[in-house]
Design a protein that fits this description.
The complex is a heterodimer of chains A (253) and B (272).
Chain A (H helix, E strand, L loop, with lengths): L4 E12 L2 E12 L3 E5 L6 H8 L9 E9 L2 E2 L7 H7 E4 L10 H11 L5 H14 L3 H4 L12 H13 L5 E5 L7 H14 L4 E5 L3 H7 L2 E6 L2 E7 H6 L4 H7 L5
Parallel strand pairs in A: 3-8, 3-9, 6-7, 7-8
Antiparallel strand pairs in A: 1-2, 1-4, 4-5, 9-10
Helix pairs in contact in A: 3-4, 3-6, 4-6, 6-7
Chain B lengths: L1 H28 L1 H5 L4 E2 L4 E2 L2 H32 L2 H14 L4 H20 L6 H11 L1 H13 L3 H9 L4 H12 L1 H17 L2 H7 L16 H8 L5 H34 L2
Antiparallel strand pairs in B: 1-2
Helix pairs in contact in B: 1-13, 3-6, 3-7, 3-10, 4-7, 5-6, 5-11, 6-11, 7-10, 8-9, 10-13, 12-13
The chains are: A alpha/beta (253), B mainly alpha (272).
Chain lengths: 253, 272
């Protein structure tokens, strides 16, 4: 595997009104790897993640500075199409939010928006993405029942499958396991590791152990600043910064 | 406590009063001759209100054809596409519409809408079409204010979820937000129907008030409410009782609309 850079954050800052949520972040997201982003609550992890597929656009108080390059192209330049960006960079949220539709319709929502109509193609996408999210065996007999009836862990895997069905290049995950039990968490982690050969994955997590388990590279954010980034083993065993050391060893946060 | 019961008691008294006057009359004339006959000649002892029931329903239905799409579109626009400060000005303005006396709406109907219909489409002008248009505007505040509340309660997570899957703002509205708020919007429309079927003053002024089964939207019609309001002053004996019986029919219709709206709302919360 190469160490190609998929997304490059260049001196990137985010402001919510007068508050500065991110201070000049420069961070590379390596292609076909899992980048873990850790840090205490309020450190700007989610702001950074949402910046990478421009979901912050929804918030009128939000302002950004600096650049985020996707394959070398600045996604914040005025003529960059945010809707197309979000098709290339998918997002899984902390709380699983299945759309109020059936399982099947949840998954084909994205593909249908891209203009895919053929039934056989949609069926194949549904099966493929549910299998990749390790959910197929549990739900294959009830694809047309409401997604709201799934358990929390199943809903989160459905949300992952839904993103996979769009065949994105990058998957952003915002604390995807924060509300899940250990078994569902293990399922999701298993799926992520299997997926990194095809996708570039950015995983924001509150759970440092999760980053240690699945991430290839880990970045530590603290109060809106990037304190340290490096191979996961190094961040957890011999961090260079005292604050990283304190955080990963559980002294605060 | 006492105040709450005053409201409840007056509702109960109204219901009892109308039913006491109306129900024995219906029983005497016969259910079928009252509801399903087209012969309304109180002096001759014929009390068929079928054309008026149909007129009320058609006018209400027409009002919904005008008011529901406009109202829902306006609610979507206010909720999804307009900035907060603008909404703070627009929404109270729309609610102000509800405060305009219905006689003013009727007046607009008589001097503006009816002549326009007469010159454009022919017919008497004062017609079912005219009544539907006026009522369609009158129900807007009801539909808009309930629909915006419903849409505002759709969790933001749905919007973000749809956008994160590559939907445009517009696609997220039509495929997700409206689906999530569907039962609430249905309730808003049904409550609007209740408002439309009960409206009297504006309808008297613009509907033409001929008791007949309409053949087209340009025909003059007489609704249940208009009939009561126009004849109550002079009616005596069985004629007066017949008007109370019409009140019973209206009362039941509106109760039914409200019950439907309630069940739609309940379904919404049970579905979550």
């Amino acid at each position: 595997m190469t160490d190609a850079v998929k997304i490059a954050n260049r001196n990137f800052s985010v402001f919510y009104g007068a508050t500065r949520a991110l201070r000049g972040i420069t961070l590379d997201v390596p292609a076909h790897r899992i980048l873990g982003i850790i840090g205490p609550a309020g450190s700007g992890k989610t702001a950074l993640l949402r910046a990478m597929n421009r979901l912050n656009d929804l918030n009128p108080d939000c302002r950004v500075e600096g650049q985020i390059l996707l394959d070398g192209v600045d996604i914040y330049q005025p003529d960059f199409d945010a809707v197309r960006l979000r098709k290339r960079v998918g997002m899984v949220f902390a709380l699983p939010v299945p759309l109020p539709l059936s399982l099947f319709d949840n998954i084909v929502y994205g593909p249908r928006l891209s203009g895919i109509r053929a039934r056989t193609r949609l069926n194949a996408l549904v099966e493929g993405s549910l299998q990749a999210a390790f959910l197929w065996d549990e739900v294959k007999d009830r694809l047309h029942t409401s997604a709201m009836r799934l358990s929390g862990g199943q809903q989160q895997r459905l949300c992952l499958a839904r993103v996979l069905a769009m065949e994105p290049e990058v998957i952003l995950l915002d604390e995807p396991c924060s509300g899940l039990d250990p078994i569902s968490t293990a399922r999701i982690e298993e799926a992520l590791i299997a997926l990194k050969s095809k996708y570039t994955i950015v995983l924001v997590t509150n759970n440092t152990k999760q980053a240690a388990r699945v991430a290839d590279t880990t970045a530590f954010l603290f109060q809106g600043e990037l304190v340290e980034v490096g191979p996961t083993g190094q961040i957890f065993t011999m961090p260079k910064d005292q604050r990283t050391n304190d955080y990963v060893s559980g002294r605060f946060g | 406590m006492a105040l709450a019961f005053t409201a409840l008691t007056s509702l109960l008294l109204i219901a009892i009063f109308i039913f006491k006057e109306g129900v024995p009359f219906i029983a005497r004339v016969g259910f079928k001759d009252f509801l399903l006959s087209s012969d309304w000649r109180p002096q001759a002892g014929h009390f068929g209100i079928y054309p008026m029931i149909i007129a009320s329903l058609l006018v209400t239905f027409g009002a919904m054809l005008v008011g529901a799409p406009l109202g829902i579109a306006c609610a979507v626009f206010l909720n999804e596409f307009v900035s907060k400060p603008a909404t703070r000005i627009i929404k109270p303005t729309i609610e102000l519409l509800a405060g305009i006396p219905s006689v003013v709406y009727g007046f607009i109907g008589v001097v503006v809408v009816a002549p326009l219909i007469r010159s454009q489409f022919g017919g008497p002008g004062l017609s079912m079409l005219c009544a539907s248009l006026i009522l369609g505007v009158m129900v807007l505040p009801t539909i808009i204010s309930i629909s915006t509340d419903v849409l505002a309660s759709v969790p933001n997570a749905y919007r973000e979820g749809a956008l994160a899957l590559g939907a445009t703002r517009w696609q997220s509205v039509h495929m997700v937000i409206l689906k999530a708020g569907r039962s609430g919007i249905v309730a808003a429309v049904i409550l609007g129907m209740g408002r439309a079927i009960g409206e009297t003053m504006a309808v008297i002024m613009v509907a033409g008030n001929t008791v007949q089964l309409p053949h087209s939207a340009l025909d003059s019609v007489c609704t249940l409410t208009a009939k009561i309001a126009m004849e109550m002053g002079s009616a005596t004996g069985p004629h007066r009782q017949a008007l109370f019986a019409i009140g019973v029919v209206l009362f039941l219709m509106i109760m039914m609309f409200n019950a439907l709206a309630m069940s739609a709302i309940k379904q919404r919360f049970a579905g979550k």
